[in-house]
Structures are given as structure tokens and as C-alpha cells.
Specification:
Blueprint lengths: L17 H13 L1 H11 L8 H7 L4 H19 L25 H19 L15 H11 L5 H18 L3
Keywords: Membrane, Transmembrane, Transmembrane helix
């Protein structure tokens, strides 16, 4: 049984595999290309859209707030993958409201991360087919660049799944 009030790292846990640590770091970087592109849109750059396409997408006002929020949220979610391989994922930092200083339930973490990996895979695989669909609101070059910037997101779900499996195996080997 895991003590939910533990405030120290469990030394019986084997370290995460090096490949999982690398995969977690890569995952945290996957959202940056598309995120930077969205931030450019929120800042008023057409970033590959035609003038009319940019206006129709509503990237100004609350639209800009949404785009920035989406970008920040995506990056924060991607960074959570690091918690599967870093000490702060074993015992949550004290500054985290309500749960800081506690050890998260490894099974719950595995289930949530696994569901997230599945959802991301389903939602983001569509970007593999970016060039199969017309984008009349974008310039040809803009469409090509946007497709390239969104392409790394296809790897997010599978990489998260792999790191989640490594996390599960690690805790199972540690008897937790």
C-alpha cells in the first residue's frame, strides 16, 4: 500500500530507462513549433493565412486569448510527461495546491497518462493528412509551413504511451 503522505523519494524504485527520459524530453518539445506559430497569429501576424482567412478565423480579441491559452495549455500538458520520469512526479512539489508533498497514486497516474496518450493519438493523427485537404484560407506556402509545424504533434500520443508504459513497469518492478 502506498502512503499518500510520503514526502520523500522511494529509493526502492528503479531509475527510469534512459530512452524514456529522452522520450519525455522530446515530448515536452513537440508542441513548441505549432505553439510558436499560434503565438504569432495571436500577435497579429497572418503567419500563412490570407488576409481574409486571418480575419475569418478571428485571431484578434478573445480569439487571441483562446489561441494563447491553447498554446500555454498544450505546453503545460506536454511538460507533465516529464513527471513520469523525474523526481517531482514521484512526490509532488510542496507548492502544488492541495496535493503538494504527497505521492500520487502510481496506478491513477498510469491510467490518466494512458487515457491522455490515447486521446492525443486520436485527436492529433489527423495532422498526418494535412496535405490531403484544401486550405483555401491559407497561402500555398503558409499551408505547407503550418503542416510542417503541426506534424511533430503526431508523435505526442505514441511517445506519451511509451513513457507511460515505462512508468508502469518501473513502479511494478518497485513493488508499488
Amino acid at each position: 500500500m502506498v502512503n499518500m503522505t510520503t514526502t520523500h523519494l522511494d529509493t526502492s524504485l528503479p531509475p527510469p530507462p534512459r530512452w524514456a527520459v529522452r522520450a519525455a524530453h522530446v515530448t515536452a518539445l513537440l508542441t513548441l513549433p505549432s505553439g510558436i506559430w499560434r503565438l504569432l497569429l495571436a500577435a497579429g501576424f497572418t503567419a500563412g493565412y490570407t488576409e481574409s482567412g486571418y480575419e475569418a478565423m478571428g485571431f484578434t480579441g478573445w480569439g487571441a486569448v483562446y489561441v494563447v491559452g491553447l498554446t500555454v495549455g498544450a505546453e503545460l500538458l506536454a511538460l507533465l510527461t516529464l513527471g513520469l520520469v523525474r523526481p517531482w512526479g514521484e512526490v509532488l512539489p510542496r507548492w502544488v495546491p492541495f496535493v503538494g508533498g504527497h505521492r500520487p497514486n502510481p496506478r491513477a497516474v498510469t491510467v490518466v497518462a494512458g487515457l491522455g496518450a490515447g486521446a492525443l493519438t486520436l485527436a492529433l493523427t489527423q495532422f498526418a493528412f494535412w496535405w490531403s485537404f484544401p486550405h483555401p484560407d491559407m497561402t500555398p506556402l503558409g499551408s505547407t509551413i503550418a503542416g510542417i509545424l503541426y506534424l511533430p504533434l503526431i508523435a505526442w500520443g505514441p511517445l506519451l504511451a511509451a513513457v507511460t508504459i515505462a512508468h508502469h513497469r518501473r513502479y511494478r518492478a518497485g513493488g508499488l
